[in-house]
Design goal:
With 100 residues, the protein is an alpha+beta fold. The chain has a domain of 67 residues. The chain contains three helices and three strands, in the order βαααββ. It has a three-stranded antiparallel sheet, with no helix packed on it. A hairpin with a 2-residue loop joins strand 2 and strand 3.
Length: 100
C-alpha cells in the first residue's frame, strides 16, 4: 500500500447546545449503544473507513479492540443512524465526566 499524508481533526463541544435540528429525512432513527460488541463495531468501522484507509483499529486483535478505551469505556457511546433497514452512518461521542 502506498503512503498517504494524513491530517486528523478533533471537534470539541465545550457546552451543551440548545439548538434543535430536525432529522434530515423522514423515517430516520438514531440507535444509541452504550457498549457495542466488537463484531458490530468492526462492521461500522469498516463500512465507513475502508475507502479512506482507516487502519488503526482494523489492525487490532478482537481482544485488544474489546479493551480499547473507545469500546471499553461507557463514556464513548455509539450512535447509529438507520433508515428503513439500512445503516446510514455512525458516530462516537466522548462524554465529559460531569455529564454522567
Amino acid at each position: 500500500m502506498e503512503s498517504v499524508e494524513v491530517t486528523v481533526y478533533y471537534l470539541e463541544m465545550l457546552a451543551p447546545s440548545n439548538c434543535f435540528v430536525p432529522a434530515p429525512r423522514e423515517g430516520l432513527t438514531i440507535l444509541h449503544m452504550q457498549s457495542p460488541t466488537v463484531p458490530y463495531y468492526r462492521s461500522l468501522y469498516n463500512a465507513v473507513g475502508k475507502d479512506f484507509n482507516w487502519l488503526s483499529r482494523r489492525k487490532m486483535s478482537d481482544e485488544a479492540l474489546a479493551t480499547d478505551a473507545f469500546l471499553a469505556k461507557s463514556c464513548w457511546p455509539i450512535g447509529t443512524s438507520i433508515w428503513g433497514w439500512f445503516r446510514t452512518g455512525w458516530r462516537g461521542t466522548k462524554r465529559r465526566a460531569e455529564d454522567g
